[in-house]
């Protein structure tokens, strides 16, 4: 919000005019091109994305044979392997069983015998307990629940014995199958190591390779589609850039006329000021379309030309302007910008850098004129500028108890003469007091 209320003109800001890029920024601000430029920049970024895609396709087309051969090799190798998710884990479990077949069979048989086959087997013991409890339950029905549990236990033990017997009869050492599993696990380990560390990542690699083969085989058609999109994007971008250029042309003419009027009030008798638009060169452009170079800000180069004196042709501001002329040009530009934006307060921070004498007095008078339309706050070291102020404040640094503070004091009318005399000579004397009074009197004219 503050940027809309206050405009700050900082120390040495006039030197930004020595940078050609700032001329485009100033003219675009004057022309209120923020929204138009944002829209253009958005389209420019979109065109860059399409261009990147086209460059990638061109690169891929050049490398197409190698890329296609590599993708086909990966796909063939992985398809031939016939990968199944989780296969390595299942094979590892089967390998553990086969490697311990005799131990597992022995454990199953021994357990079966203990449950069912040997004298005194568990099922015989439970059967005897069941028969004994049947008699007791006939006398007291409360034993029925316990009898049911014993019957279930006997049935479960008999079923477990049968299952173990069947297991023992099936399991046997199978060296051929074990070798087959070892070979398959070695193959899976190799593929996992090569394609991402897992069966799942290898399967994903297969899917990507198939997609890449399809893309590479259809790259000609894809490139044609992107080229059509690129042409359409550049057509749209060129049209937008031409609109920007037209607005700049109109705004440049208006800015030139207003700047000449402002510069006359700043002591230039017959100034000429012209924002000149040129065509962007191919070396500075991101795109060249239909013979037109397109850059991030359009098709234009913009450079301010100045003729400070009668009879002199307008020359680039970068080449001919003195420090005093730069200060006056920047002051005029700031005045027009503030007027156009309706800024209420303008702050000038040491705008006297690089100027003095008559030029300083001209700048001071201009600031006085501006104060009719804006609140002007000015930090200055020049008495010629300070004399034009309606109010005068001094800022001093002082040390107290090991710390430094700034103190601001409002000067009364009589004190102003003393302060301006000090600014003129450092030490106040009658001579500098007279000069100060003369400056103040002249400023009131």
How would you summarize what this structure contains?
Among the domains are: about 70-215, no CATH class; about 345-445, no CATH class.
Low-confidence stretches: none
Amino-to-carboxy terminus distance: 37 Å
Count of alpha/pi helices = 17
Number of strands: 10
Radius of gyration: 47 Å
Q: Could you state the oligomeric state of the chains shown?
A: single chain
DSSP strand content: 5-15%
Question: How would you sum up this structure, described in words?
Answer:
By secondary structure, the protein is an alpha/beta fold. Among the domains are: 69-215, no CATH class; 344-445, no CATH class. It contains 17 helices and ten strands. The strands form four sheets. It has a three-stranded parallel β-sheet. Strands 2-5-6 form a three-stranded antiparallel β-sheet. Strands 3-4 form a two-stranded antiparallel sheet. Helix 14 links the parallel strand 7 (345-349) and strand 8 (375-379).
């Amino acid at each position: 919000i503050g940027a809309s209320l206050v405009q700050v003109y900082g120390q040495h800001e006039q030197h930004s005019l020595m940078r050609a890029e700032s001329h485009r920024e100033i003219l675009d601000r004057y022309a209120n091109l923020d929204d138009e430029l944002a829209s253009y920049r958005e389209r420019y970024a979109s065109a860059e994305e399409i261009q990147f895609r086209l460059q990638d396709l061109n690169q891929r087309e050049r490398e197409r044979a190698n890329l296609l051969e590599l993708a086909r090799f990966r796909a063939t190798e992985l398809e031939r392997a016939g990968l199944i998710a989780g296969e390595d884990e299942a094979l590892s479990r089967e390998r553990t069983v086969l490697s311990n077949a005799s131990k597992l069979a022995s454990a199953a048989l021994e357990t079966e015998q203990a449950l069912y086959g040997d004298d005194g087997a568990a099922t015989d013991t439970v059967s005897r307990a069941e028969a004994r409890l049947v008699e007791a339950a006939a006398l007291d029905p409360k034993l029925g629940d316990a009898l049911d549990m014993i019957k279930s236990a006997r049935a479960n033990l008999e079923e477990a014995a049968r299952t173990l017997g069947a297991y023992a009869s099936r399991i046997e050492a199978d060296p051929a199958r074990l070798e087959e599993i070892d070979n398959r696990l070695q193959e899976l380990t190799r593929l996992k190591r090569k394609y991402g560390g897992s069966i799942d990542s290898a399967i994903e690699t297969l899917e990507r390779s198939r997609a890449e083969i399809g893309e590479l085989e259809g790259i000609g058609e894809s490139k044609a589609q992107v080229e059509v999109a690129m042409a359409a994007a550049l057509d749209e971008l060129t049209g937008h850039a031409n609109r920007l250029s037209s607005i700049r042309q109109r705004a440049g003419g208006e800015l030139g006329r207003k700047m000449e009027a402002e510069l006359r009030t700043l002591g230039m008798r017959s100034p000429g000021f012209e924002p000149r638009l040129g065509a962007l060169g191919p070396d500075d452009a991101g795109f060249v379309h239909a013979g037109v170079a397109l850059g991030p800000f359009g098709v234009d180069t913009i450079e301010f030309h100045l003729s400070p004196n009668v009879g002199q042709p307008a020359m680039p501001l970068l080449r001919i302007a003195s420090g005093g002329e730069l200060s006056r040009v920047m002051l005029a530009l700031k005045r027009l910008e503030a007027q156009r934006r309706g800024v209420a307060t303008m702050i000038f921070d040491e705008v006297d850098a690089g100027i003095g004498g008559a030029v300083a007095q001209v700048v001071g008078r201009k600031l006085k004129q501006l104060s009719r339309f804006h609140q002007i706050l000015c930090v200055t070291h020049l008495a010629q500028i300070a004399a034009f102020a309606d109010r005068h404040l001094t800022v001093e640094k002082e040390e107290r108890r090991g710390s430094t503070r700034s103190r601001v004091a409002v000067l009364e009318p009589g004190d102003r003469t003393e302060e301006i005399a000090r600014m003129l000579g450092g030490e106040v004397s009658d001579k500098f007091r007279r000069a100060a009074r003369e400056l103040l009197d002249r400023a009131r004219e």
